[in-house]
Amino acid sequence: MNVLKFLDQKISAALVAAGAPADSPAMVRQSARVQFGDYQSNGVMPVAKKLGMNPRELAQKVIDNLDLTEAADKIEIAGPGFINIFLKPEWMAEKLSGYVQDDRAGVEEAATRQTIVVDLSAPNVAKEMHVAHLRSTVIGDAVSKTLEFLGHKVVRANHIGDWGTQFGMLIAHLEDLQKDNPDVMNSELGDLENFYRESKKHYDSDEEFAKRARNYVVKLQGGDEWCLTQWKKLVDVTMEQNLNTYKRLGVNITARDTMGESMYNDMLPAIVEDMKGKGLAVEDDGAMVVYLDEYKNKDGDPMGVIVQKRDGGFLYTTTDIACARYRYENLGADRVLYYIDARQAQHLQQAWTIVRKAGYVPEHVTLEHHAFGMMLGKDNKPFKTRAGGVVKLASLLDEATARATRLIEEKSGDMPAEQKAEVINAIAMGSVKYSDLSKNRTSDYVFEWDNMLSFEGNTAPYMMYAYTRVQSIFRKAGVDVAALGGDIAIKEDAERELAIKLMQFSEAVEGVAREGMPHILCAYLFELAGCFMKFYEFCPVNKVDVPADVKTSRLQLCALTARTLKLGLGCIGIETVEQM
RNA sequence: GCGCCCGUAGCUCAGUUGGAUAGAGCAAUGGCCUUCUAAGCCAUCGGUCGCAGGUUCGAAUCCUGCCGGGCGUGCCA
């Protein structure tokens, strides 16, 4: 159950019973300090003000109308009119006992199952994935996994860059390479970055080549079969490599999720035609333009967004309009989450403004941009994408693996080779992913090996280590978790802190689903791991002088901790191991 | 010029949408392993929340104006 929601409903009702207007929010939060209890309600003060009442008197009336005897020990009024709630250990113990054998650890499925489209990853064809793709891929997948855990239907939409004028030169370059080596697809294209660079170089230096390339662009857009075949080869070889990277990262993105820009091409003429019919798009200097009062141009006039070029070609705004429409009409989206670079913010807002005006997606279907900043180098300058010096995602993962290997050899060198490899991989991928997942910055951020791959403090290995410590207790105790029973008794401070944290798992999971931000769950899991580490230090389980009833109680807290950590880390795409 | 985002401890970041004395990790310092894995635990140190006003019982959070940084701004994506 969600304790916060439970209390919020109870107190909201009491607030109304005490004379507050019907929809007055109870504003229940986890308490800021231990002396303020476990939860606090901040809703009395605004209402008292509105009604011209003394807030502490209103708070008392709320309490008089509030029945929380089963759940709370103590309810008190504090400060100007806060209501502080202290949960009853027996109540928590009873709830937690129920979670020990529950494979959802107390998290209920969402009341209404939604279809949620998650726009993520979006690598470019004929280029290798590099560090800038990491956030979108990892965060998008983590949110997807969490939403799926809550029972929603998630469509991962991999909006790959598979269209545009650059394909002319790529096709021409591929053609040249094939003349010399028919097997080029299997050899030289292993290094896509080099392939792209070489074709660009050729394009810039050879006018004949450039002419041929431009001709191929026209032919490709006209649906020329040979060009399409060449284009398809480039898409396939790129995605084959990317799918390997996804697999390595433990990210659940498959070939079926590929929905690139080219997918919407067929929709574009009809959309422009439709917008023209609605009076939204008008002709200006040969191009089709949508004017938006919401945005101003340099002269202070409504900004014009071009949806079709003078030469008849379409632009990416038109594609994104079609894309939003497709996600609503064809995929049946109730909600669309876009995990895209912050630089696209204005562009997306414009596209969506047009989408709403054209009536392609109703207001109740939300289009949410979850932006993040650019990856900067240590010199505070962005990574270059074309002129070399790019940090490839694959080499980043290699480096992470190398570092994890060094660490494991040092700490647990005597582990069997197969197990060791598994642990190394879990730690390497977990560390890289966690460093991205735990941040919520929309501004730029500096990429640093040392921060990303440090294995101390608020990191994936810390939480994985907490998990192995629990498992170690069970190995020592020789007890099967499935056979655990008996009562939970919450006595020590460390037990109480752990217990309350365990009660709050669903709040964290639902927070991620609501906000689309996995760092909420990261923070929760770090706190949970911390509570367990403290419990581990202060509350022995397997010692000889621990009474039997205390031992069974603590074993259950351990079992639930393990389950919660595993489920929670699973929600954000981080593996656990039994030993490390 | 206009628009969007950002500015919190030496560093990396939280701050539950206006709540109580602004929190973590790293780094630094000092303690804790004959006792379930010390990748750990405990303690100390560290802040004019960019600056100045305003709104109110109450502001890191909201409004205005500055300062500083990033991004975007009609025929690339």
Note down, in words, how this protein is organized.
The protein has 580 residues and is of the alpha/beta class. Among the domains are: 3-87, Gyrase A, domain 2 (2-Layer Sandwich), CATH 3.30.1360; 166-254, no CATH class; 377-580, Isoleucyl-tRNA Synthetase, Domain 1 (Orthogonal Bundle), CATH 1.10.730. Helix content is 52%, strand content 12%. The chain has 20 helices and 13 strands. It has helices at 3-17, 44-51, 55-64, 89-100, 132-149, 166-180, 192-205, 207-221, 225-249, 268-277, 316-329, 345-358, 393-412, 417-437, 449-453, 460-477, 493-503, 505-515, 519-538, 548-571; strands at 28-30, 39-41, 72-78, 82-87, 115-119, 153-157, 281-284, 287-296, 302-308, 335-341, 366-372, 375-376, 445-446. The chain has a four-stranded antiparallel β-sheet. A four-stranded parallel β-sheet has the order 6-5-10-11, with helices on both faces. The radius of gyration is 28 Å and the shape is flat. The chain binds one RNA strand of 77 nucleotides through helix 2, strand 8, strand 9, helix 12 and helix 13.
